[in-house]
Automatic annotation (TrEMBL):
It holds the Pfam family PfkB. Residues 19-324 form the Carbohydrate kinase PfkB domain. InterPro entries: PfkB_dom, Ribokinase-like. One of its GO terms (molecular function) is kinase activity. It comes from the Bacteria. GO terms for cellular component: cytosol. The keyword Zinc-finger does not apply. This is Ribokinase. SUPFAM superfamilies: Ribokinase-like (SSF53613).
Amino acid sequence: MLSDFLSRFHVQRDHEPTVISLGQIWVDIMMDVKELPAAGEFINARHVSRSVSGSFRVLQAASKMGARTENASIMGTGHWATYIHEKMKRAHVVSTGQVNGTRDNGFRIVLNDGSAKTFIASHGAESMGDVRMFDHVTPREGDVVYISGTSLMNESAVGVNEFIKRPECSPDERTFKIVINPTNSLQLVSDQLLEHLVLARPIWSLNRQEARTLASRLAVHVDESSTLTVGGGFDESMFKLCEALGNALHSTVILRAGARGAWVSRKNRPVVHIEGFETKATHIRSAGPCHTGALCALLAEGWDIEDAVQIANAAASIAIAHNKHGIPTSASFEESVALAQTAVKETAQGRMLS
């Protein structure tokens, strides 16, 4: 049973807030191999599995946490699109985007040798679009719009750019939240689009590699000299990186670090570290989408950033420890709260005493 502290977060509204994704969805075909083949060599895969990937994993995680979810990106027509629609239906994700009647959704071949993954992508309908592709997206108060890193590249980028330029997306006018998880390939994102994203002041959710890539693209200098000393370390490095990006972006930055939790920078506030949860990994896929999906669901419910990150940390920890065919299994709200409840109660008690 949830505590009174948790139940007070449920906000009653005329409109039930929705997590709306502008990200791309495709299919992953993972092949477990002993080792990567040499050019011209023939090998057998030890195991083959397929799964819906891209922004679906964020929407699936948000839905598992109890949020209404909507895929607003382009879908194709064909075998892979049908498979994706079946999985979205099971996950209670509504698809409202345009339909490309001549192209199927794309797929990726993922070769997994147990230590690293190698990707071969074939893009499809999800990567196509124009300036009007998101005209049907009209977020209402309390909604959360999720933008993935892949949607910032190829033809879909023009649609994201057009959406983010709307007057209602400006920080002073916006009644909904925007959460963005950028890509490691930020060098492929246009200067204009990146500028518009920065000006929109979304919530940035990143891992360490993505954060360093963004810092490099924005020419943000991060002084990590003290972390190279005997007394320096990972936590201090993450703190400095989160602080530097927060100061440069003038927006909320969530810097994820697996079992170490996350560092959160908010405008005009000091950086805080939200502890994570120790867990044993059962796969090598990232639980980042599970964290981001849980975060979006809780923000749509009206949760404060730091409290939402704490539960998202728990959800990601559960996802790291559980998998189906190597794919992290999204956690429910109840499961996440059960893991984090002790820390939540301690936080609540500390606030009541302060």
